[in-house]
Amino acid sequence: MSDRVRLAVAGLGAIAQSVHLPLIARRWDLFELVAVCDLAPSLRADVGEQYGVPEDRRYADAGRMVEESGADGVVLLTSGSHGDVALRALRAGVAVFCEKPLTYTVAEADALAAAEEELGRPGLLLAYMKEHDEAVWQLGERLAGIDDVRAVEVEVLHPTGQSQLAYANLRPAPLDVDPDAVSRLAVESGRLLDAAIGAGTSDRLRHLYANVVLGSIVHNTSLLRAVFGGLVSVDGARQWPDGAQPGRGPGSVEVTGELPGAVRARMSWHYLPDYPAYTETLTVHHGRGSLRVTFGTPYVLNNPTRLEVVEAPPAGMAAGGEVRSVFTSTGESFENELADFHRMVTAGEPPRAGVAEGRADILTSQRIVRLLAGDEPVSGEAARA
């Protein structure tokens, strides 16, 4: 293998067009785009032409692309569980860069772990971009010298995806997707959701699990895991005002639990369609001060994340004062994770998050959805999580 990793990209929608494909082109020194895949023939043609991918390397089936394209790595940007294609890739010796969620079920994650073990080297990077944010790295360094963290709070103010991507001039939604292919994917997703949270569960709960807890809140779950070791217990979860339904805004979700060291944690996630701009904060309170990380709209490349530190002034200064310091960087977290993927493929460096971390996040997500169910019966893996 040359130093440039040959990449195949599956899923040519919003995240591919606004973030990953432009960054792959930017990092020409690390990557060569050799194949693309999408269910929509028009997207395959238009994006393939834009990025110089030959017609015979534009695929409708991701598994076939993995097996035929000659790629060293596959970038999975499709919706839903990524278990099937990721497993086919690992068994073919192709490295996997996987957007969230890793899978819908623990069983799928266990199959990936077995395939990676058989491969004999790190084979899958789970692409939680906030784990690759330089402000988060700085937060971790600051916390290394603090032993009295009291509470951690994550708050997300989430407008529509369309408003976040209004700047990006995305291609129109394709109208030529094969409906039979969509139906097959829906049936398979339904089967996996049955295994995860139980056959017969309501549309509300299935939507919450797949699209909210695993589709968005998992970014916060993974952030707590990466920085603090993860939630050791989940003791509260509620959704309001009136239940999430497919095609409607999912409202607000709040999750409470405990981190290692008896540190209390709360995640508050609010879907606010008309909110001016996406905002997320991670706040840490300890015995001598506070730290706050503020994330902006994730789809705007090189949009600086801000770390603010509040602490007491040095000894000898007037009592009652405070010192505030700020760290920002224009380093791009999505680009950092691609660079980490390159190192995993070429040098065998373990990723920050892989199959094991994804499995842990699925378990936490199942514990959350079990509490969100309220009086509704839950079976499958979530009943045992």
TrEMBL record:
Keyword Oxidoreductase set for record: yes
Q: Does the keyword Oxidoreductase apply?
A: yes
* GO molecular function terms noted in the UniProt entry: nucleotide binding; oxidoreductase activity
Q: Which residues form the Gfo/Idh/MocA-like oxidoreductase N-terminal domain?
A: 6-121
Q: Which UniProt keywords apply?
A: Oxidoreductase
Source species, domain of life: Bacteria
One Pfam family from the UniProt entry?
A: GFO_IDH_MocA
Q: Which family does it belong to?
A: Belongs to the Gfo/Idh/MocA family.
Q: What is this protein called?
A: Gfo/Idh/MocA family oxidoreductase
